[in-house]
Design goal:
The chain has helices spanning 22-30, 48-59, 84-87, 97-104, 123-131, 163-174, 189-200, 232-244, 260-269, 306-313, 334-339, 369-381, 401-405; strands spanning 2-7, 13-17, 39-42, 64-67, 70-73, 81-82, 106-110, 135-139, 142-146, 155-157, 179-183, 204-206, 212-216, 225-227, 248-252, 272-276, 279-283, 292-294, 319-323, 343-347, 350-354, 363-365, 385-389, 411-416. By secondary structure, it is of the alpha/beta class. The chain folds into two domains: 2-19 and 230-416, Enolpyruvate transferase domain (UDP-n-acetylglucosamine1-carboxyvinyl-transferase, Chain, Alpha-beta prism); 22-227, Alpha-beta prism (UDP-n-acetylglucosamine1-carboxyvinyl-transferase, Chain), CATH 3.65.10.10. It catalyses: phosphoenolpyruvate + UDP-N-acetyl-alpha-D-glucosamine = UDP-N-acetyl-3-O-(1-carboxyvinyl)-alpha-D-glucosamine + phosphate.
């Protein structure tokens, strides 16, 4: 097992290129199940979850090759079963359910795994697909679905906003018979990217990026070449790195259009964020002020940036507040930050953070993907040495993070646990 060892206290200065978005690449790659023809995907991040997805697609009859940020698929002759051994490691595996039903009329998908940040049931996916004619049984940890002939278009109103549910239904409806309307749909930029990919393959979709999406089903989709959008959460994490180390970073390929809520909060704290010809510059200019954040579905403040902001708040004089409304168990980084000297008082879905001048390096343990990032950020600014353990979580969502941080001044190295 590997860990990151960080010697903190160095302002980060220089240029970092933002990688392709994991949360866009995963559903788009799953969308290749819908294609009988080859496709080529560029700007794909080299991440554990991406490699797991390619392995899963191969088992599902959709072989692909991944090298130098490019995935090439040969066209899919799908098989219906997504086995537990792969699905257990990655929640996004459930996104093969809709495409398999659309192509084959059947699917057998193990209940998914992933980060332990709270309940993320697939009930909304299943109830929506049932309205399109699918029938489901659950047996021995597997979701088994089938439908007679093609899925049928339906008017679906999600009980609550669901990113995965919107993605699954968007793909399923693209090959369904008739029109599907999705109301209370998720609006995330990654969903817009998925819709744009499907449109490039011949799908008929309108309203993506709004809460009402209309899909006119077509009989077949064709292959295409498609570039994955930049990762807004990775970009936001590096913005925090500039703030927490009192540094100055230029982020290339930074998707500012998808980061309004994050940039607004950073500017409210006192950071300078400017768009330049070569990217977005994030500069520390004066002592930061405390803020309050409440996580919300897009375009609100993203839950995937909550842990990173909490790490920054630990270094800001005064009292900051965090309210987590998306996941009920997403403060697991708080006790680890406290090991470094942070003053964090969680109470249910809120946390009060009283900032101080500095934290002290310590051995800490990551519990999930974004918690890992928060601990790395805290270590970059801390006095002394920080050991971040269980970084396999981090590798699920950040492409070689230490190789991006070292050139801008970070003293960080990957080591094997003793």
């Amino acid at each position: 097992m590997e860990k990151l060892v960080i010697q903190g206290g160095v302002p980060l200065k220089g240029t970092i290129r933002v990688s392709g978005a994991k949360n866009a690449a995963l559903p788009i790659l799953m969308g290749s199940i819908l294609l009988a023809e080859p496709a080529r995907f560029t700007n794909v991040p080299n991440l554990r979850d991406i490699r797991t997805t390619i392995s899963l697609l191969d088992i599902l009859g959709c072989p692909g090759r991944f090298a130098d940020g490019v995935v090439e698929t040969d066209g899919c002759d799908p098989k219906p079963e997504a086995p537990y051994d792969l699905v257990k490691t990655m929640r996004a595996s459930v996104l093969c359910l809709g495409p398999l039903l659309a192509r084959l009329g059947e699917a057998k998908v193990a209940y998914p795994g992933g980060c332990a940040i709270g309940a993320r049931p697939v009930d909304l996916h299943l109830s929506a697909l049932e309205k399109m004619g699918a029938v489901f049984d659950v047996d021995s940890g597997y979701i088994m679905g089938r439908c007679e002939g093609r899925l049928k278009g339906a008017h679906i109103v999600f009980e609550k906003v669901t990113v995965g549910g919107t993605e699954n239904l968007l793909m399923a409806a693209s090959l369904a018979e008739g029109e599907t309307i999705l109301e209370n749909a998720a609006r995330e930029p990654e969903i817009v990217d998925l819709a744009n990919f499907l449109i490039a393959c011949g799908a008929k979709i309108e309203g993506h990026g709004s809460s009402v999406i209309r899909i006119q089903g077509v009989e077949r989709l064709v292959g295409c070449e498609y570039s994955i959008m930049p990762d807004r959460i990775e970009a936001g994490t590096f913005m925090i790195a500039a703030a927490i180390t009192k540094g100055d970073l230029l982020l290339e390929d930074c998707p500012n259009y998808a980061l309004d809520a994050v940039i607004t909060k950073l500017e409210e704290m006192g950071m300078k964020v400017t768009k330049e010809e070569k990217g977005t510059r994030v500069t520390y200019v004066e002592p930061l002020s405390p803020v309050e954040i409440t996580t919300q579905p897009y375009p609100g403040f993203p839950t995937d940036m909550q842990a990173q902001f909490m790490a920054l708040m630990c270094y800001v004089d005064g009292t900051s507040m965090v309210e987590e409304t998306i996941f009920e168990n997403r403060f697991m980084h708080a006790p680890e930050l406290a090991r470094m000297g942070a003053d964090i008082r969680p109470a249910g879905r809120t946390a009060r953070i009283k900032g101080r001048d500095s934290l002290r390096g310590a051995p800490v343990m990551a519990s999930d993907l974004r918690a890992s990032a928060s601990l790395v950020l805290a270590g970059l600014a801390a006095e002394g040495e920080t050991h971040v353990q269980r970084i396999y979580h981090l590798d699920r969502g950040y492409e070689k993070i230490e190789e991006k941080l070292i050139p801008v001044g970070a003293r960080i190295q990957r080591m094997n646990e003793e």
